[in-house]
Design a protein that fits this description.
By secondary structure, the chain is an all-alpha fold. The chain has three helices and no strands. The protein starts with a helix and ends with a helix.
Length: 65
């Protein structure tokens, strides 16, 4: 996602964590019970809310306009 370095790092970590969770589910080691698109849309929402509350991201967006 587009934002400051801190928000980009947090977004990457969230995607990595849920990617590992779904890998474990595919391997049959853990059952999550949710579909991938539910988690994807929830992650996009969480990341968007985080970017909208981050002062560094807001400063970057004001500078682009």
């Amino acid at each position: 996602m587009f934002g400051c370095m801190k928000c980009s790092k947090i977004s990457g970590v969230l995607f990595l964590v849920f990617g590992i969770v779904f890998l474990l589910e595919d391997l049959g080691l853990w059952t999550l019970g949710l579909s991938w698109y539910t988690i994807f849309f929830a992650l996009i929402g969480i990341i968007s809310i985080g970017n909208s509350m981050c002062k560094d991201c807001q400063a970057m967006m004001k500078g682009k306009k």
